[in-house]
Amino acid sequence: MIGLKCRECGRTYPKEVVFVCEYCFGSVEVDYDYDAIRRVLTKDALERRPRSLWRYRELLPIEGEPTAGLSSGFTPFIRSERLARVLGVRELYLKDDSVSHPTLSFKDRVVAVAISRAQELKFDTIACASTGNLAHAVSAQAARAGLNRYLFIPADLESSKVVASLVYEPTLVAVEGTYDEVNRLCAEIGAKYPWAFVNINIRPYYAEGSKTYGYEIVEQMGWKAPQHVVVPAAGGSLITKISKALKELRLLGFIPEGVTQLYAAQASGCAPIVNTIQARSEIVKPVKPNTIAKSLAIGNPADGYYATQAVLESGGWAEAATDEEIISAMKLLAQTEGIFTETAGGVTVAVAQKLIQQGIIPRDESIVLCITGNGLKTQEPIMNRLGEAIRIKPSLASFESSLADRLSSASAI
Ligand SMILES: *Cc1c(COP(=O)(O)O)cnc(C)c1O
Ligand SMILES: [Zn+2]
Question: Tell me, which fold does domain 77-103+208-383 have in CATH?
Fold first, then answer.
């Protein structure tokens, strides 16, 4: 890491707590010395390292040893057979962060990097504005690091995400408002208290953690870039950083020049990035979220502009899914691949299905779906949409009478 650099005017800053450019108010990002990295980082060296996101540490914004998320990352990468058949495609993969350690979503990656860097910058308090998964990841990883933690969430969050965050005994603040209002409040609090808000004042470091999701896709495909990647978008950071990861791997010579088409997936009830891409516009118009996909419910996405640019320059596209389609897609993924993803994963699968049906994603090319969170954390929307357990007495007679219709077609020994 050389330092920080404005994404708009290119002005450089020291590697401290800077998140907006003083000259043009552009956002800043981490800049690296890729020539130096090319000399030390080879595929061979990398493959011998522990299977965590820190195996790409030269490409991550820390100076010393990582202190958080040592077991995060390197999640399963699965070749899909049954879902591929239903979608009618030849080569389909699932990158499965629904089983991320320790909090079952891809937010463990960004938080691992944010906390490691916050400790280097000598913060003793970690905070965040969250749609749910971030609060969970910050709560868990800050507890392990022995740091104070303040989490700010919209008051209407799913109860499983609230419980999952509270168990680590943080200060959890439920704000009566939307995520965008929570975020605005946190910016004010951050200006007054000396806390590391992972997705606000140390966002340039935090956001780099998402690149590891992209590196892993390429490494797990055998150092090959897929032709198409469908990515759920909230603030638009993950999709922007997958694009950066692919560019870096090309720059380092790990994969040949080429293009990977990126597709942004959002819920119809909150699709500011999809709207912008479909209009081929540069201006992201904020919306008021109304969707069961609460982890994606950001109406005014911080990286909406960059996400749009990343998608359009890749030749990709965007699509939205209704709440009904999200639930059907969650069930489809569970029933074909045995993966219970949260609503955000339902958005990804539903959008992929639509883009394939529309002929936008070709059926005979390699496709990766980003499954970023776990269904046990968003049970409310699906709970009453499933079958029920068949209740019986503990006797063979009760079993056979209660299941008579099913047993008539099964043969006994
Ligand atoms: C936060 C989140 C996303 C989207 O991340 P952004 O980087 O904000 O676009 C996707 N999936 C899940 C499960 C998330 O929690
Ligand atoms: Zn600038």
Answer: Rossmann fold (3.40.50)
